[in-house]
Specification:
This protein has 509 residues and is an alpha+beta fold. 27% of the residues lie in helices and 20% in strands.
Length: 509
């Protein structure tokens, strides 16, 4: 396999990576003109409607981008992945690292008029920990108590030193919902968000659109230059460019196959490096996936570079771990962990007791993944692995049902790299279909979380946890892939962010 560029051992600033990505995409990076921002202009954004408008109950990692329209979190994330103030203007740890105090911005309210105060933070944390359908409870387990110090200061007691909390609070885990709203009708939040974010929902048609107006009370409203956002499900890949040129969408993510058509239509293509990586979720409590040799054979039988070249038209990089090259958590020793080698794969199958090959079923979430699944199917056949492709039952979340033991998936990353490891590999992790985790992985994660983020030892302990996770758990990583945004000349200053999509500074003519 062709050798790949190695990352600098120190942290490569992801802002630089994002800027480089901006220059590499199609018609160029952020557009500029002599146009004037329209303060009442609405941006029509082709993106996924969330599984729920309640951040506690939503089940998809990509939900965070839509939820961030209505909700703000205690902490936001810089374009390079670092933590920056959000609803909390500052935070500090005690000397032992097992308590963190957040200081809130004064005079903030939710869209229903409820104060954003320390009591609201306490109520949100406790709901996230105890609500029966909570998908963030595992991430909040480290918090053993919440103390309201005064109106604007709230302290979390932790079960051990944990310096990941600010990053953890930058995602949907840290999004605050009006306590008045969830006390009155917690189920209603699924379709009617009540937050303190940059926009307020004014109309919602499930599976069709969500219309937002600018929130004049948002703490950073002066930097929200849009009058509103209309969120619509992304266009069908075959007509994505037509939808953008006709004005049905102002900006949307398109598949790699549509980049050439977008460029030909004189649209701007922005390729953004993000946390997304294609994966095979595996339930290692179900035969034959309980045999590590079978999983190693499967991984050796996949030509990752060919997947990128064919299915993603060269947009992406082969990968064997859940983080992109250049990110602090990226462990370069995992490169080519399971190099493409059908003969080695066949030998491993023989060692596993399958000298005549093996039959597997690969489940996909929708027809959109059919071509990629078929390419994997063809590749692994050379090693004696016969794959049957099936489409999951519509509306069934495999994260909850776990009925499909081999599932073609995507991982969208998390604001905290250790949170990402827990989602993928923790005993309660949504993408850990077997719901099991070896003691050495738990120990490695605990060591990393006890190191301050600015400590020189942090990168090494983090990469050790990543290495332990990848080499002991069954998930099979395929390749990282960029997010390909396409828009016309009326959209300006679209932000290149590795994490949650934000709209500060974005404007339309």
């Amino acid at each position: 396999m062709t050798s790949r560029r190695r990352p600098v051992r120190a942290l490569i600033p992801l802002l630089l990576l994002a800027l480089l990505a901006a220059c590499s995409g199609g018609a160029g990076g952020n557009s500029s003109s002599d146009g004037t921002p329209d303060p009442d202009g609405t941006l029509i954004w082709g993106w996924h409607l969330p599984t729920s408008w309640d951040p506690v109950a939503s089940t998809a990692g990509q939900d965070v981008h839509a939820l961030a329209l209505a909700y703000d979190a205690l902490v936001q994330q810089e374009n390079n992945g670092d933590a920056r103030p959000g609803l909390a203007e500052s935070w500090s740890y005690n000397d032992t690292g097992d308590q963190i105090t957040f200081t809130l911005r004064p005079d903030l309210t939710f869209s229903d008029g409820t104060p954003v105060d320390a009591e609201a933070v306490r109520a949100n944390i406790e709901r996230g920990q105890t609500q029966s359908n909570s998908t963030i409870a595992a991430q909040l387990a480290v918090i053993t108590g919440v103390t309201v110090v005064d109106e604007l200061n709230v302290t979390f007691q932790l079960d051990q030193p944990d310096y990941q909390i600010p990053l953890l609070m930058a995602g949907k885990t840290g999004m605050l919902v009006s306590p008045t709203a969830f006390a009155a009708d917690v189920d209603g939040l699924a379709i009617a968000p009540v937050g303190s974010g940059p926009f307020v929902l004014t109309e919602y048609v499930p599976d069709s659109r969500a219309v937002f107006e600018r929130n004049a009370e948002y703490w950073n409203a002066e930097n929200i230059l849009l009058g509103g956002v209309e969120l619509k499900p992304p266009p069908d890949p075959t007509v994505a460019v037509a939808g953008l040129t006709s004005g049905q969408f102002d900006i949307a993510v398109v598949p790699p196959a549509q980049v050439a058509a977008a460029e030909a239509a004189q649209l701007t293509v922005e390729e953004q490096r993000v946390f997304t990586v294609r994966t095979l979720d595996v339930n290692n409590t179900v035969a034959p996936y309980d045999n590590p040799l079978v999983l190693q054979a499967l991984s050796h039988a996949i030509d990752r570079q060919a997947l990128v070249d064919v299915a993603y038209f060269g947009h992406g990089e082969p990968n064997w771990q859940p983080f992109p090259e250049g990110y602090l958590a990226y462990d370069e020793s995992l490169d080519d962990l399971y190099a493409y080698d059908p003969d080695t794969a066949a030998d491993l199958l023989t060692e596993a007791g399958h000298p005549d090959g093996i039959d597997l079923t690969l489940t996909i979430g929708s027809a959109a993944d059919q071509a990629l699944a078929e390419q994997i199917q063809a590749q692994v056949s050379e090693a004696g692995i016969t794959i049957t492709i099936e489409v999951a039952t519509p509306g069934v979340s495999n994260y909850i049902s776990r009925q499909y033991p081999l599932y073609l998936d995507s991982f969208s990353g998390r604001e905290s790299p250790l949170q990402a490891l827990e989602v993928l590999f923790g005993p309660e992790g949504l993408m850990n279909l077997g719901r099991n985790s070896p003691p050495e992985l738990d120990a490695a994660i605990d060591v990393a979380r006890q190191v301050p983020l600015d400590d020189a030892a942090y990168a090494e302990t983090l990469q050790t946890a990543v290495h332990t996770a990848v080499t002991t758990m069954p998930n099979t990583f395929l390749f990282t892939w960029p997010r390909l945004y396409v828009h016309g000349d009326n959209v300006h200053d679209w932000q290149h962010q590795i994490g949650t999509v934000r709209f500060e500074g974005v404007w339309v003519e």
